[in-house]
Amino acid sequence: MLTSCWKTDQLLDVDVDVDVDVDVDVDVDVDVDVDVDVDVDVDVDVDVDVDVDVDVDVDVDVDVVGADLSAN
């Protein structure tokens, strides 16, 4: 029985070494080339009609009172 206990003690002696080494390298290269070719035809038609009517009525009445307009 003592021998059995001795073996049990030997079995419970555990030594664990854990080494974790993580290397992460991320390289991201993004190249964007955008070529836009646009053909635009623009037709603009502008029609401007201007009608101007001007009516001018001038009435001048001159009354001269007491003035001698005769030539001497």
TrEMBL record:
InterPro entries hit by this protein: Hexapep_transf_CS (IPR018357)
Gene Ontology MF term list: transferase activity
Descriptive protein name: ATPase
